[in-house]
Target: Cullin N-terminal domain-containing protein
Amino acid sequence: MSLPTKRSTSFSAASSSSSFPPMKKAKNGLQQTPQSHDDDDDNDNDKEGFSMEEDHTPAAANLSRKKATLPQPTKKLVIKLNKVLMFSSNLMEEKLYQQIEKECEEHISAALQALVGQNTDHSVFLSLIEKCWQDFCDQMLLIRSIALSLDRKYVRRNPNVRSLWEMGLQLFRKHLSLAPEVEQRTVTGLLSMIENERLGEAVNRTLLNHLLKMFTALGIYMESFEKRFL
Model:
């Protein structure tokens, strides 16, 4: 048997060193055996399998920590905030209702006072009062449609508060009574139209019906008109 030559020995050592990586020296002085590629693949597969099953939600992250605790619910804070918002909303609704009432009263008073002292005949004056009433109705319907939530919620929660339409009627009735000249001339003009129709003259029945409905809506038909009519 021939002995290995120096060249063959060096070649085999080199090949063995290339096949197996050198052993690393650990900190404790012991040598660690290198891990093979198969072990690395197994570790990678284990890591991948663990990562796929791991829950990344914040709650799970907090639970995985021994000292971490989930945040406490803010139920009490939300309830207090809701109470403040409801209280503020109720105050705003009351303020809005009072502002609407104030603006309507100023407008109705000015419109009726503008009819005082009108030197016109009965038919013209009745046309003026009819236009004043029609403008009032249109504007109140518009206000009610805009402030629909106020009319439905605030008024229903407060039985002593009138609806926007009823509030407007009450203001119109109030200021019509404060302008007795306008009310009396209106009743006199209606009675004159009815008398002329009985005599066979043509009258504006649409105007007559509108004003009679006005007295009915205001609740003063019997008091202001029917007594004089009978």
User: Anything to note?
Assistant: Confidence is low (pLDDT under 50) at residues 1-56, 60-64, 73-79.
